[in-house]
Design a protein that fits this description.
The protein has helices at about 5-15, 25-35, 35-50, 55-65, 70-85, 90-100, 105-115, 120-135, 140-145, 150, 155-170, 170-185, 190-200, 205-215, 225-235, 240-255, 260-270, 275-285, 290-305, 310-320, 330-340, 340-355, 360-370, 380-395, 400-415, 415-430, 435-445, 455-480. The protein is mainly α. About 45% of the residues are buried.
Length: about 500
Amino acid sequence: MIAKGIFIALACALIGWTHSAADPIQAVIADLQAARYSKAQAEIEQKLKESPKDARLWTLHGFALTHLNNPKQALLSYRRALEISPDYLPALEGAAELSFKASGPDAVVFIEKILKIRPKDQTSHAMLASLAVKRGDCSAAVKEFESSRPLIDSQIVPLQEYGSCLAKLKRSAEAIPIFDRLAKLQPADERARYNLAVVQSFSGRYQDVIATLAPTEGGSEQDADALDLLAEAYEAVSDTPRAVAALRQAIVTAPDQAHLYVDFADLCLVHNSFQVGIDMVNAGLTRLPKSAALYLARGILYTQMGQYDRSEADFARAEQLDPAMGPGAAARGMAELQRNNLDNAEATIRARLRSNPNEPFLHYLLAETLLKTGAAVGTPRFDEAVKSAQKAIRLQPEFTLARDVLSRLYLQQNKLDEAIEQSRLAFEEDPTDQTALYHYILALRKRNKSEDIPALTRRLVALREQARAKESTERRFLLVEVKPSQAH
């Protein structure tokens, strides 16, 4: 633990005091050295009655109380010492150690005071780095870790935090030596090898990923995430057969992880093997029939094959299962509002609209809610949904969510020109909007304007690939981080 360094320094400072035979507290220090903490505490408290402004005595009191498992009172004693002598290093070290362990608000203050006295103190820099990690300030953490690297070079948790922060700051190349060191410190830990491969992948060093993760003769069986990452590396170096083999093995290893089937489907997309991808997704759906991600992946494959009725059904099912995914992204505000409890959502939205009749987001939510509750074409509720979406756009013209839902409503009414217009505008406003692009393709197909569909479909696939890559990176980055409790 990093804080032990400061406590050892404090103990050494106390030992140093024994050189003066005439010192009246020599006996107290001898008791502390012999771990007779209760006896030392009593002796110190007696001496404090005689010398209440002796910073050394208050520091020794804090030291004794710490070893008697009374950190709160120990910190108070260190504070009393610092009131008497603000730059008294042993008291600063004791207070810093206790505040650090408790994540106290004054920990940084104490440590920075130590660094003013000893600017190159590696333990203090390492503690500041750890505190910066806890508050989410990776830039500050990396700076402090750099100043304490020799000290933390064999400590798992600080190195893990250092490497993770470098990765978060998109300094993956610098993170590689850190995770390489972690892998060497934990040669039997497959997670450490995987983490190294992740940052190698972030840096585009795919041959290194393969060297790190490729199975060895007699080695332990790889987990699904490692195989998934290995497949990505093989594909990146144009070794598609091994990529396919690795992904198949990943699916066999973890058949209930939807993202593995999705990754296989995306690999099939790249190589125009649409039916192979559909077959694999179908296998996944037999195990995971409520996976929105799988329906979305199959819908994309059907789109590529020109089977729009099937793709439309899959997108609708994906949206029903998870409004926050893919073409169902327009429903995310509503889902956040009432956790998809539509009856409560509608009542809440209407109540808010009475107080805020010109709030575009509320009008959009009402349209989305009415549609989600099954409003049928030609009914008053459906007409109200259309009017609500239209009003949201009048109030806020660059409102892509509202245009997405309005285009869907127009498609259901078979108002194709209006659907095309809303989808086109939404996509122009947000070129990453998969919902708008899908509606655009669907409306053009129904309007028999097929000449634009291939290019738009390629764009849809590219957007899906970008989204998948982002999801994959985020998923893997979460796996880079190891909780301190797991690091031993």
